[in-house]
């Protein structure tokens, strides 16, 4: 049920961090991968790692804010592989400012990257998934999908809360087409973006760690199982679900 051999997955922001970990996980289960991201050098390195697992990888330069780039991403995937089975909407960003200090353009940029792009990607793959009999959409949220993001996290939290409702809405709309739409909410993970926290913010790091029942932050590989499950036939009767992968942080 977890075999993805022959299936094709697009992973936005798939050239590093959690996106690359999920891409590698899907490739390890047999999927061919399209890495859609902006940094060409990182994308090439990611594709090499993926292909070392024995599947095909194609890197595409994509700015998810640009609708034309999203449409081209999907059309080039179809040209390369003839199908698209899985879309992982992972690309994301934030602007760390107090709400009163945010420029309107900064708010718009966060919402565009984190939420609008997920909608555009899902809409673009829909006709292809429908015509081939089904597909999987996996939207990546955050702990801030359910918790307030504090003074510096208003647009990020708003966008990630929207990811949950978008996932549920697509699930209801597209169930008739055998397209499952679900969300993963990662907890506190150790990535390049957070690697400096233990040294630079030791009190914050300790506070978060104490709240996690496992007593440690997640490693990127800890997200792979959830991504494989929601991309495989094992989850064919799972849609509109919100899966937290947080070591128990949200229930403590």
TrEMBL record:
Pfam families: adh_short_C2. It comes from the Eukaryota. InterPro entries: NAD(P)-bd_dom_sf, SDR_fam. Pathway: Lipid metabolism; fatty acid biosynthesis. Gene3D superfamilies: NAD(P)-binding Rossmann-like Domain. One of its GO terms (molecular function) is oxidoreductase activity, acting on the CH-OH group of donors, NAD or NADP as acceptor. Belongs to the short-chain dehydrogenases/reductases (SDR) family. This is 2-dehydro-3-deoxy-D-gluconate 5-dehydrogenase. The lineage of its organism: Eukaryota, Metazoa, Porifera, Demospongiae, Heteroscleromorpha.
